[in-house]
Amino acid sequence: MADGLNQARAMRVAEIINDYRTLLLHISQQRMEVCQADHNEEGYVVLRESLASAQNLSSANYQPCPVTGQGNVETEKAELQRVIVDSSARRFQAHKIYLRAAAARRWAIARINILRAQRSPADKAAALKTATTTLHQDLNGITDHHVVSDLRAADMRAGHWLDDDPSLEVIRRWIAGR
Known about the structure:
Elements: H1 6-28, H2 42-59, H3 73-116, H4 121-140, H5 144-158, H6 168-177
């Protein structure tokens, strides 16, 4: 039975897709030039992996279900709910990639600043170790639960309609099924 919320669902799709597009843009802005000697440093590896993951995510096309019964409100509702799950899963993945890329970029900037500073070699080594420890802590904090909570909090602050937003388990199943 029609619930009259298809317009809200369509608006939610637009909001999620806009967030997804914005995240992909922000990920692409995390690029950094790196000299060959530093190419295999852990933070730069994470950054490259993040950029590659974002590229793979953005090249994965949406596969709509064939729609039958044009004008059928229930068919439209089911398709909108499916698109909400798909776009939410993509946004979830993009946000996770962005958080990892941003952590790696912070590490890289800290590393550059440490290496440029007028410090003794021992002080530089200690500071580099601290920066790497911070990178590990940041990366370990980027859990699926954290990503979903972060997105939900932002959606709530923005006053978005969230009734059909999928749970973390639904997102995980959707991603695993693709």
